[in-house]
Specification:
301 residues, three-stranded antiparallel beta sheet, two-stranded antiparallel ribbon, globular, mainly alpha, 5 strands, 8 helices
């Protein structure tokens, strides 16, 4: 991939690019990271990792990268120091229920305990919606393992956002704010067959790690990120990899449009796995009428 110079519209000689990514919570990392399930066609860390694009395979690697790149320390820390950091992070939980869940996972206890607190009627309704509409991607004990054949995802939070050319529009993503839209850069990509194509994104995600663009749509690395865990999400606003959703209401509104986008762009006769319970009907999408219940449940995770 080569960055396109916006002044000349030609490939530049730049070898790095700045992207804007949020700082994820360190709570519940014990339940995330590589899980050995549903592997992606390429590394790094084909079954998930740490950081938003899954680039780190261990908490020690993540800590070392932060110390060297952000803190810019002059001497590498000892392995014991990194192990101590990882040990500390592995006891940080957003609730007692999640801690108990993690302890049960460690000893292989089945069935696993439900980490949810007591839920009222509205929150219970939201849990039903979550199980139907969200758990396909946010599954497993850490709510970070996809059961559908897509380990890493493009959820259309990049800039520029996709706009439907059909009138009336079949989906309607909230436009990017100027503070994010200004980060969009155009890249020229050399495809596997030797031809070139151009794509624009504020953050190409895992494609910056692998350079792999232009394969089959589910396996293309463009704009792809790892699935984050959701335990404690009510305490970690704003949301998405670029902080583009201020509230959980914004998150749910965005996913309502994601399902609309997926349905509108599905190939004839094809029902994307995350949109269906039976392989035939588009029946997983959350509805506007379910928004309040789903948000209420998300706040209790």
């Amino acid at each position: 991939m080569k960055l396109i110079d916006p002044l000349t519209n030609l490939p530049s000689s730049e070898t790095s690019v700045d992207v804007w990514r949020m700082v994820p919570s360190v709570f519940n990392v014990k339940l995330t990271g590589p899980d050995g399930q549903n592997p992606w066609p390429r590394g790094p860390n084909p079954t998930g990792g740490y950081q938003l694009d899954g680039r780190r395979g261990t908490l020690q690697e993540q800590a070392l990268g932060a110390l060297m790149a952000h803190a810019q320390i002059q001497n590498a820390p000892s392995p014991q120091f990194l192990d101590d950091l990882a040990t500390f992070q592995n006891v940080l939980f957003s609730s007692h229920g999640v801690r108990e869940l993690s302890e049960a996972v460690d000893v292989g206890a089945l069935p696993l305990p439900d980490p949810d607190p007591e839920l009222n009627e509205l929150e219970q309704q939201g849990k039903v919606v979550f199980t139907r509409a969200c758990a396909q991607c946010h599954g497993g004990a850490g709510q970070s393992t996809a059961s559908v054949p897509r380990r890493f995802h493009d959820i259309n939070t990049q800039c520029p956002r996709r706009v439907d050319t059909v009138i009336p529009p079949r989906w309607n993503f909230k436009p990017c704010p100027p503070s994010l839209a200004r980060n969009a850069r155009t890249y020229q990509i050399t495809l596997i067959d030797g031809t070139t194509a151009r794509r624009t994104s504020s953050d190409p995600g895992r494609a910056l790690l692998t350079g792999f663009v232009g394969g089959q749509a589910p396996a293309d690395d463009w704009n792809k990120f790892d699935v984050p865990g959701l335990h404690g999400i009510g305490k970690t606003a704003p949301y998405f990899h670029n902080n583009s959703a201020a509230t959980l209401e914004d998150v749910v509104n965005h996913y309502i449009e994601v399902f609309k986008f997926a349905i509108a762009n599905a190939a004839p006769g094809v029902v994307p796995p995350f949109t269906t319970t039976d392989g035939v009907h588009f029946d997983r999408a959350p509805t506007p009428e379910e928004r309040a219940a789903l948000v209420a449940y998300l706040k209790k995770l």
